[in-house]
Amino acid sequence: MNLAFMFAVYFIIWWVVLFTVLPFGVRTQAEAGVVVPGTSGSAPEGFRLGRVIMLTSVVAAVVFCVLWAAVAWNFIDLDAIAGFPSAVQLPAEVTR
């Protein structure tokens, strides 16, 4: 995997993990008993974006490392995936 491909895969994994991490530990305003006028009772109370970003980054890094290891040790063969650009080099007589 080249660096740009690795970054793209990490970015996609990060976004998927973000949406799975968002509901962890969130209390709604209705659960807390303090609903701010003009907001929904299901709105989060005391949302901590920094904690969510850090947790997402750590979980995404672990998932990416597992995926990278699977590709590096040929548990997953990217050349076998239909439609995936092959890394096979052309013979010298074809490139002349």
State the total count of DSSP E strands. Answer: 0
Total of helices: 4
Distance between the termini: 27 Å
Q: Summarize model confidence as the mean pLDDT.
A: 85
Helix coverage percent = 40-55%
**Share of β-strand residues:** under 5%
Overall shape: it is elongated
The stretches of 5 or more residues where confidence is low (pLDDT under 50) are none
Give the SSE order as H and E letters. Answer: HHHH
Largest pleated sheet? none
Structural class by SSE content: mainly alpha
Rg of Cα set? 22 Å
Kindly summarize this structure in a few lines.
This protein has four helices and no strands. The protein is mainly alpha-helical.
Task: Report on the architecture of this protein.
By secondary structure, this protein is mainly α. 53% of the residues lie in helices and 0% in strands. It has 4 helices and no strands. It has helices spanning 3-21, 29-32, 49-72, 92-95. Helix 1 packs across helix 3 (49-72). The longest helix has 24 residues, at 49-72. The chain starts with a helix and ends with a helix. The mean pLDDT is 85.
Entry keywords:
96 residues; elongated; 0% strand; 4 helices; mainly alpha; single chain
Q: What is this structure's SSE topology?
A:
Blueprint: H1 3-21, H2 29-32, H3 49-72, H4 92-95
